[in-house]
Amino acid sequence: DHITREKLERILAVIQGTNQKALLMYSNIDMKTQEAYELAVKGLIRPMGKSPPIITAVRCFQFAPPEFQLEIHCLHETQQYLRKLVHEIGLELKSSAVCTQVRRIRDGVFTVDDALPRTQWNMQSIQEAIQNCQLKVQTELEKALG
Q: With 0-12 CB in 10 A as exposed, 13-18 as middle and 19+ as buried, what is 116?
């Protein structure tokens, strides 16, 4: 009964704020420049090199005690990191929390819509999936290379 959505939201805000500071630190961008402002507005600030996992956004989209679901946007994460994060949230709430499921809905430019179900893991379906994603990959490469 001592766990409320408001308490959870406060903890998530602290986590997100701390990670935003880390993101700025690892991005090696002078935050006093116009370029930095424009990148920040577009949400395009990214670490320049190797960095630890960084959360760019986190929100609770379902709260039904004793269960809750989080949507987490992050860079360089692992399932182990996400489980640890949920455990730490539980400790901050003076309780315990266990991660029971992780569902990746995006990885780079690829989304769930690009995923190929196991029932379609055959040569023809794989070739079609690669062809369908070629334009998306090419566009992303052109953006990255300027």
A: middle
